[in-house]
Amino acid sequence: MGRNILIVESNNDKYFFQSVIKHMNLDISISAPIFLDEDCRVMDGSDKDKLTKALKDLKADIQKEDIDRVGIILDIDRHSEADRIKFINDYLIKVFPEATPLDRVNQFIELNFDDYQIQLACYFTNVDGKGELETVLKAIKSQDSTHADCLERWRECLISNSKQITDKNFDKLWVVNYIRYDTSTKDDKKDAAKKLTLNYALENKSFIWNLDHPILAELKVFFRLFNDLSL
Amino acid sequence: MIKDIEITNFRCFDRLKVSGFKRVNLISGKNNVGKTALLEAIFLNSTPTKDTLLSVIDSRINYSITNKAKELSEKEWNDLLKNQNAGIFFSIDSVSENRNPKKVTVFIMNEQSNISELNIILSGILSEVFGKILEDNINEDGEKKEFIDRQKKQIEREVLNNNKAQDVIVLRIESDDKKSPQTIILPKTTTIALEGNQFRGNNTKHRSNSSFIPSNKRSSSIELTLEFDNARLEDRDKEVLNAFQIIDPSLVSVESFSIPEPTIYLKRQGEKRMPLSLFGDAMNRMADIILKIINNQDSVLLIDEIENGIHHSNQVAFWEFLYKLADRLNVQIFATTHSLEMTEAFIKAGLDRPDSAAHFELTRHEKTNRIVAINRDLETLEYAIERHKEVRGGA
């Protein structure tokens, strides 16, 4: 049986999904992320370029590695599921002209070229149809989060001074505060660069997240696809 | 320009298909994955002659110091085949950018083969060749037709009727041009004549379809000087100086003198002239590469381990020079490398010329263990390297 791999947007996505997969005891490896972060867009080229490169890189890997199934996970942000699927399909067909287009999430399509037969499925990280990874992390926190929650007041202060912060960036700050102030120990603070990071928190303090939260149910359905030999 | 190639039963390849060659092609891969064999295959398809075959065999032989000439053995011929049980031949088929196909097949007869089968193959080829020649010449004068009749009878006598079918190599070339199909028959016991322990075939002469620079080759002073003089005759010696200046910007002239024997001399600003041999491996290799391009317009150049001797700080300028020269003189280049730095320099120099540069990773598929050639455009290659992926071969 060949390998299953995931293509994700950022390192934080990679760390989070790895811990969910580990929690579920599954066997899926995650490629180096493709960085579709909006903040990076101006500096590093457009999202479509990055997705195209990731797909071409995948096509090269398929020719030498034993890969059976591939998953693409993107943040839904403020788009609809249909829009996100169209976004992927537009570039998928350019790199794999014989592929069946994706129709919906959590369903495999055939990504065949030359003699290679690969299955591909997609999923979009969301809470109630919008948001991104940090939105999910905020929803599944399991410890007291006073320091992070008080950022709401800070946000209100910004608004009253005619300043804005996007939901996306706010959620990122929330997660940083939750890790740095709400769930860190004295020891952690002594080695801040290493220990006050999401990666460290996921690997060594996974109890600060509720990985059994019902919000993760759909994501888990997606991951289970990869071990389902009947598909 | 060759665009695609398919190799069957040659060296380490059962069947290898490589598609999408461009003007300048870099092939990377681990040791023993077949990079040199791929170059040999392209060489044979590009210039399918007896000398090409012999030089391909020669490059893999260890000669003793006392060898003046070497008669080739059964083993050395059979080493060209991946699997003798799969068939007594290997084939190398190419398609050009104009969609012209060219098929080169080499039959290596052996004692285990059924002699009547071999006779059928040979008779089939011979009748086709001679039948076509006779047909072409049917309206020519009687003398020519008689000559061809005599040739045919002679071959049939020597090769077929005397049961020597198992002792020959048959090289068959089929393409769209008028000369096709061509058949060259040579006895297995061909002797390679050596000069200073290396084979000197006719491929080294001026104006060739393709040239091969092996990884460890150092051309003789006389050969290089002859090439330089040919370049000078065509007023192209300035290109040679420009190439050398990539490695040593203080050089001001390149000239040839017959002192004590034909020698290329280089001169640095404020210094006296010195022979090229004193300037190190990179300069000598550079001379070989540049002169081969300059003197063989409209041809194919194959370079094994192109990074040899070239310091990383000169690599981007070296590639830029190659791209420009190859484009101007219509030379298609195929080079192999182990070096990640050389690959990165290739990308940097080639990003502005996406239509001229192609990269191929030669590696074994993890599951089937078959050798595959993965074509990446330069941006995809750069992306893979940035993510610390292995593109030099292997997972």
TrEMBL record, chain A:
Pfam families: DUF3226. This is DUF4276 domain-containing protein.
From TrEMBL, chain B:
InterPro entries: AAA_GajA/Old/RecF-like (IPR041685), Bact_Antivir_Def_Nuclease (IPR051396), P-loop_NTPase (IPR027417). Residues 1-342 form the Endonuclease GajA/Old nuclease/RecF-like AAA domain. Pfam families: AAA_15 (PF13175). This is Endonuclease GajA/Old nuclease/RecF-like AAA domain-containing protein. It comes from Chamaesiphon polymorphus CCALA 037. The lineage of its organism: Bacteria, Bacillati, Cyanobacteriota, Cyanophyceae, Gomontiellales.
